[in-house]
Amino acid sequence: MILREKISNQLPAWRERVKVLVKEHGTTVIDQVTIDQVYGGMRDIKSLVTDISFVDPATGIKFRGMSIPEVLEKLPKPEGAAIPYVGALFYLLLIGEIPNRTEAEAVEAEWAKRAEVPAYVYDVLRAMPKNTHPMVLFSQAVLALQNTSEFARRYKEGMKKDVYWEPTLEDALNLTAKLPVIAAFIYKLKYGNGQQPKYNPNLDYGANFAHMLDVKDKKGYAELARLYFILHSDHESGNVSAHATHLVGSALSDAYYAFSAGLNGLAGPLHGLANQECLGWLISVRDRFGGVPSREDLYTFAWETLDSGKVIPGYGHAVLRVPDPRFTAQLEYAKKNFPQDTLVQLAELVYEVVPQVLKEQGKAKNPAPNVDAISGTLQYYYGVREFDFYTVLFGVGRALGVMANLVWARALGQPIERPKSLTTAMLEEAARK
């Protein structure tokens, strides 16, 4: 399998590189920690390492050093498509190189071979109460797959530490192959006829999802699915879903345990629910004005929202100091494919007006739009209008990044994560010194 061969060829140099760095410079100080960081969610503390992605405050996310525009331009695409293969992105995250078409299609073929979901997983989901949240179903399905883990099986049999990454890669491929099938089934179970979807080996990852979801414009939605999964794949290691996956995985829990934990974090209102909150706010503006308001009316409405004690969702980011390039990519996609859509026009107007309002208010340090400011709008256009399902879509994409990170964490022998805690009295004592 091409991914295993590529990683295997890179590993000796990577292991030596890390070994030398730790041995010769292990005591080098790279950051200092303040009390407000300790009490502030460990914000901006430099204490994690990943070579999969990096968020540059001035330019946004980079996947293996490549910006979003570079990724969308340079990765190979299905015939006649404008958005790259999702398999090409997964190859890039794992290998650190731009694949050619054959290599990208090899990843897609691996997914097609591994996409069948065991019947008992469907039975588990059907047995859940009908009002169960889609994210609970999604996380439960991932956990239900745990007994198929290659890593768990081989660890129990006994294997050397330096090959931990090999069954982890198998788990990563098996899991990412099945996630769109599971997500589509959850959608049909919750909002449709409950039919089990089937993966078509003649279609790519994005096109398969469009067909399994059975949206009307399958060709258009296939493009959006590719774009959505690529843009939501990774965002460094410090966000909740990525860190939860890494933390649980560091205990040598397999990919299924680890990713289920990541999904549970993603379900939190402060992480994965923002996209539906943003769409809800846009719809409230549309309904208030019967369409797209004037610039002046939107300015006034934005101030009314803030003065009432509410927030305008989708603006501001913990790291970025510029408009999120993931937002920009989605806005450009929408303007190219359905520029007359009311919510798209409204999202663009909000982008032009709201940052200035937030600057005038003075509370938001970086009031530029983030990825959530428009992502729900695109789903809504194609008829996927069940807000609770949006975080499941996020989860399918996020799996690509966290699984690539998990494979490399095992390959480089990263240890169990165990930071040190202090008491409030200790912090007070430190402050007095």
Short description:
This protein is mostly helical.
Number of strands: 3
Looking at this structure, what is the CATH superfamily of the domain at 107-267 and 391-411? Citrate Synthase, domain 1
Question: What is the general shape?
Answer: globular
User: Major beta sheet, specifics?
Assistant: 3 strands, antiparallel
CATH class designation of the domain at 107-267 and 391-411: Mainly Alpha
Rg, nearest Å: 22 Å
Determine the N-to-C terminus distance: 58 Å
Q: Ranges with pLDDT <50 over ≥5 residues?
A: none
Q: Please identify, by name, the CATH architecture of the domain at 107-267 and 391-411.
A: Orthogonal Bundle
β-strand percent reads: under 5%
CATH topology term of the domain at 107-267 and 391-411: Citrate Synthase, domain 1
Give the fraction of residues assigned to helices.
55-70%
How many DSSP H or I helices? 20
Write down the oligomeric state: single chain
Find the structural class using helix and strand composition. Answer: mainly alpha
H and E string: HHEEEHHHHHHHHHHHHHHHHHH
Explain this structure:
With 433 residues, the chain is an all-alpha fold. It has a domain at 107-267 and 391-411: Citrate Synthase, domain 1 (Orthogonal Bundle). 61% of the residues lie in helices and 2% in strands. The chain contains 20 helices and three strands. It has helices at 2-25, 35-39, 68-74, 86-95, 101-114, 119-127, 134-144, 150-157, 165-191, 205-213, 218-231, 240-249, 255-266, 274-289, 295-307, 325-337, 342-361, 372-381, 390-411, 424-432; strands spanning 53-56, 60-63, 66-67. It has a three-stranded antiparallel sheet with strand order 1-2-3. Strand 2 and strand 3 (66-67) form a beta hairpin. Helix 9 (165-191) packs antiparallel against helix 19 (390-411) and helix 12 (240-249) packs antiparallel against helix 13. The protein is globular. The model has no long low-confidence stretch (mean pLDDT 94).
